[in-house]
Amino acid sequence: MNVMTTEPAREKNKISAKPGPYTIETVLSVKHYTDRLFHFRITRPAAFRFRSGEFIMIGLPKEDGKPLLRAYSVASPFWDEALDFYSIKVPDGPLTSRLQHIQEGDEILLGKKPVGTLVLDALKPGKRLYMVSTGTGIAPFASLIRDPETYEKFDEVILTHTCRELAELKYGEELVAATKEDELIGEMAREKLVHFTSVTRDDGPVKGRVTDMINSGELFDHLGVPAFDPAVDRVMICGSEGLLKDTRQICLERGFVEGSNAAPADFVVEKAFVATD
Ligand code: A2P
Fold it and tell me: Which of 73, 179, 220, 264 is the most buried (most CB within 10 A)?
């Protein structure tokens, strides 16, 4: 007789939090990409509205029951029924050291007020939209490249993603491939979306920081387009502090004006949150 031995089911982590500026949501799936990066999907409250590219507070209760929340860009489009996030794992990070262990069925805290500047409303009309990202900074663009408005407003959408290692590009590659096959926006994405990747600490097809490739012109040669021009190009930047500082400087030197929700202009900047947590 075969005796089936099954592992005892792991208790799901349920939250008994006091009412606050957040709701309690359930983890639907988790996917680990590398030992530093993972993606997870959670339920979306019916009343939760956001603009593609915005961020929101998410987190877990601490030992004392008080919430520990951090800002995360929503990585899914506004029309999706659930919410996606893409996170770094920091071994000693107060939140991510615990968040990286979440599993399907666990509960998580979700803030109620999405905000942010990486939104289409903060840019003036243009021809070509650049989304410049490093590491988990690709998250808000995972939302924006699946928003039909992005393709309605721009003739070309160029997503650049630079990571240390090739394995860290996988999430973006899967995302772009799925976007091009998507029923709703696949056709627009196939026509207008270009994905440019590079690595800095691995041997890859393209090696180097995106900032160096903008300055040398290599990026534009690869893409077969003219160099940055504030008359027609718009730029969104999200990633490490260094990337933001250096790309912002490049944009300013080339005559781009920084935009905001209140005053739309030529480029917008937002740091990739939890980069150090
Ligand atoms: P590098 O390996 O040369 O530091 P991180 O994983 O530390 O967030 O970095 C993600 C990517 O961002 C890496 O490829 C890193 O390159 C790159 N990067 C870091 N600082 C800058 C900067 N100032 N300008 C452009 N890219 C940067």
Answer: 73
For residue 248 and ligand 1, the question of a CB distance below 6 A is answered with no
Instruction: Say what the pLDDT of residue 228 is.
Output: 96
pLDDT in tens, 124-176: 999 999 999 999 999 999 999 999 999 999 999 999 999 999 999 999 999 99
Residue span of the structural domain in which 83 resides: 22-111
What is the total count of domains within the chain? 2
The number of residues in the chain equals 277
Looking at the fold, whether 230 and 165 belong to one and the same domain comes out as yes
Q: Identify the pLDDT of residue 21.
A: 87
Average the pLDDT over 187-204 and give the result.
Answer: 96
| Cα of 5 from ligand 1 centre, angstroms | 47
Cα-to-centroid distance, 88 and ligand 1 (Å): 14
Ligand 1 atom nearest to 245, measured from its CA: 23
User: 200 C-alpha vs ligand 1 centroid, how far in Å?
Assistant: 7
Amino acid 274: pLDDT: 56
Residue 197 Cβ < 6 Å to ligand 1: no
Residue whose CA is at the smallest distance from ligand 1 atom 11: 163
One domain for residues 262 and 175: yes
43 lines ligand 1 (CB under 6 A): no
